[in-house]
Amino acid sequence: MTLPRIPLLPWLLALVLALLGRAGAHPMPTTLVQLNIHGGYVDADLDLPFNELQLATRWNLVGNANALAQYGERVRAYLREHLTVTTPGGQPWTVSVGEPEVSEAEQTATGPFQEFIVPVRLTPPAGASSRAFTVKYDAIVHQVVTHNVLVSIRQDWEGGVAPEHPLELGVIRTDTRTGTVPPLVVEREGGGLWGGFVGLLRLGMTHIAEGTDHLLFLLVLLLPAPLLARTALKPPRWGEFGGARRSLVNILKIVTAFTIGHSLTLLLGTFRLVELPTQPIEALIAFSILVSAVHALRPIFPGREAGVAAGFGLIHGLAFSFTLAEFDLTAGQMAVSLLGFNIGIELMQLLVIAVTMPWLILLARTSVYTPVRVVGAGVAALAALGWLGQRLLGTDNPLSLLADGLGTHAMWIIGGLAVLAVLATLVSRQGPGVGRPLP
């Protein structure tokens, strides 16, 4: 009887790596394969860590300043040999490997390392779908049996997957029982315009929910909305509660103006009719929060809040457009994306306002509102200064780190505001219209 041949070198490497792991070496980084599914093709970025690729190929990569020049073409040839894609029926796709780049990276528990980032274009045969295929990939794992290849979809418009929230597909690794590397089957059939609309609506909502700076601008601008401005005083001050109806009208004006402003530049920026660098836009957003915070402390543009909201909304809209500009979409898909993304933004804004403004209006009837307004405006001003420094200088600072953490405590802040509003209303003996101005 003939015994099956078992490749010896992979198992020796696995044993060496296991012994290194027991000696205290940190885990090795993984290969990342990120797919972008389009109508007639699939783009992919392959991130190949130097240390693992060196183990598999015996190339001199780690610590080699000339790794790209010496091994760039070899990497391309290596991937052509170890990457094939077929239709579910077995027809081969065309695999085009682009020029690799060298990048610094860091994965959880691995520490910093260098890697090749290689773009790949995968094209199905005529008549075949780009949404169903089988990936046969064994780069590195054909020699380093402990290596893992994490495959995810970074973008699939019809399936509702956006770069901000990629979808994990699976892990390519060596089957230790057979010594083979099983293929990965990708099936994304279905979807369409509705899937794209829902995905972008969800993206718009999460963009606001996770975009602390956008929400903070709007909320701080709404902070003095229930109050009357005493413009006759020098300097002007915020005075008493102006009534529930007036407060709601002010809120509606401000939100509508902000929506008009950001919708306009979202449209222009997405279609690249207006293009500005990211850094100054992000810095201007921080500045808009700072201006709103100063206004919440002392009225600097009383009665003109809607105009200011519209003006700064133009800046925020350009920031929103950076998200959609990353998609490679047809004109029809982009129109659907704009609609879904904008509706998602508005829904989340309205939800946050709906759970926040009733408590502010209740508090505005009591003497407690003055310290609440001052503290809220002060925190917003400090956050804005932190973000402004971070976005102008390109480095984090203590204030920016604290500001970034505000969003994670949003529900606690709103809950505390609700409790305070109810308690202040219950114990207050003051009637409506007697809120105390800032001394």
Could you explain the architecture of this structure?
By secondary structure, this protein is an alpha+beta fold. The protein has helices at 8-22, 50-57, 67-82, 193-210, 212-222, 244-270, 278-297, 305-325, 331-364, 369-393, 398-404, 410-427, and strands at residues 31-37, 42-49, 83-86, 94-97, 101-107, 111-123, 132-137, 149-156, 167-172, 184-187, 227-230, 237-241. The strands form three sheets. Strands 1, 2, 4, 5, 6, 8 and 9 form a seven-stranded mixed β-sheet that branches. Strands 3-7-10 form a three-stranded antiparallel β-sheet. Strands 11-12 form a two-stranded antiparallel sheet. A hairpin with a 6-residue loop joins strand 11 and strand 12 (237-241). Helix 4 (193-210) runs parallel beside helix 9, helix 5 (212-222) runs antiparallel to helix 10 and helix 6 runs parallel beside helix 8 (305-325). The longest helix has 34 residues, at 331-364. The protein is elongated, with a radius of gyration of 28 Å. Residues 1-6, 8-26 and 430-439 have low confidence and may be disordered.
Biggest β-sheet: count, sense, barrel?
7 strands, mixed
Terminal Cα span: 97 Å
> Helix count, per DSSP?
12
Q: Helix and strand succession? A: HEEHHEEEEEEEEHHEEHHHHHHH
Helix/strand-derived class? alpha+beta
Uncertain spans, ≥5 residues at pLDDT below 50?
Answer: 1-6, 8-26, 430-439
Rg computed from alpha carbons, rounded to a whole number of angstroms: 28 Å
- CA-based shape: elongated
Proportion of strand residues: 15-25%
Mean pLDDT: 86
Oligomeric grouping of the chains: single chain
- Number of β-strand runs: 12
- Bin the helical content: 40-55%
